[in-house]
Amino acid sequence: MSPTDADLLAYVEASAALLALPLEAARAQRVAQHLARTAALAALLDGVPLRPEDEPAEIYRPAPFPGTADGGASS
């Protein structure tokens, strides 16, 4: 079930209030429109079937922690 325009606007307004961000009604509407576009793009990507080898997470290697040669704890 995808959110309605009213749902997205309510979410934007509630988020802004929670974060104490001043948000005029017209700007809140524009933010909700951008959020709707982003949600539509995410839904398209979510619909693409991926096999485990399409997104190999094991390739990720974090950089060593600054100040150490191998990323381990310095002594």
**What are the secondary-structure elements, in order, as H or E?**
HH
| Class inferred from helices and paired strands | mainly alpha
| Approximate strand percentage | under 5%
**Uncertain segments of ≥5 residues (pLDDT<50)?**
none
Rg measurement, Å: 21 Å
N-C termini distance = 53 Å
Structural commentary:
The chain is mainly α. The chain is built from 2 helices and no strands. It is 48% helix and 0% strand. The longest helix has 22 residues, at 25-46. The protein has helices spanning 5-18, 25-46. The protein starts with a helix and ends in a 29-residue tail after the last helix. The model has no long low-confidence stretch (mean pLDDT 86). It has a domain at 1-40. Helix 1 crosses helix 2 (25-46).
What topology emerges from the helices and strands here?
Elements: H1 5-18, H2 25-46
Helix pairs in contact: 1-2
Question: Main traits of this protein?
Answer:
single chain, 75 residues, 0% strand, flat
In short:
With 75 residues, the chain is an all-alpha fold. Helix content is 48%, strand content 0%. The chain has a domain at 1-40.
